[in-house]
Amino acid sequence: MKRMKKTFFCLIFFVISVCAVGAFASCKEGDGNERAKAQILTNDEKTFVFTADASASGEMSVYDYLVWFQESEVMTFDGSEGDYGFFVTAVNGTYQADDYSTYWSLYTSVTEKDGVIYAATEYGSYDVNGATLASASYGVSSLPVFAGETYALVFTESAW
Q1: What value, to the nearest 5°, has the Cα angle with vertex 146 and ends 144 and 152?
Q2: 72 vs 159, more confident
Q3: How buried is residue 92: exposed, middle or buried, by Cβ count under 10 Å (0-12/13-18/19+)?
Q4: Top CATH class, 43-157
Q5: Under a CB-based contact definition with an 8 Å cutoff, are residues 92 and 75 in contact?
Q6: Model-level pTM?
Q7: What is the pLDDT of residue 77?
Q8: How many other C-beta atoms can be found within 10 angstroms of the C-beta atom of residue 91?
Q9: Nearest 5°: phi and psi at 124?
Q10: Who has greater pLDDT, 13 or 75?
Q11: Using DSSP, how many helices (H) and how many strands (E) does the chain show?
Q12: Which of 150, 156, 159, 155 is nearest to 77 (CA)?
């Protein structure tokens, strides 16, 4: 009986320890989940558009948001890491062509902030809900997400 009580208390201690570690791990500073909030404007096979909520501070990239959306089963994406960061090759099951005759373009409403040019309409634009987004000068892994700004991944056919 004594041995059973000891085993029971060890088991209770173990369960409480696991719960405590889980609680502290979920409070970890900067894990991003609390900050990766956004309104999804479009989510289909050819377009994924979101607007960041007021908590976005520019500390997270579009890539961070995409990872969070995928983990939350909002959308899917695929790609690979390259010399210039992460290169998106698929969104929601639609893959770009191997010959680049189709590809995924990144657009944003952030054109300039604090002296940094993040996008320019001279290189392309995309209209969504009455707003014109400019072609991003940065890739998904280096384009920061700011509060109230809109970001779009658009399946594009090559002009050449």
Answers
A1: 70
A2: 72
A3: middle
A4: mainly beta
A5: yes
A6: 0.77
A7: 98
A8: 25
A9: 135, 155
A10: 75
A11: 2, 13
A12: 155
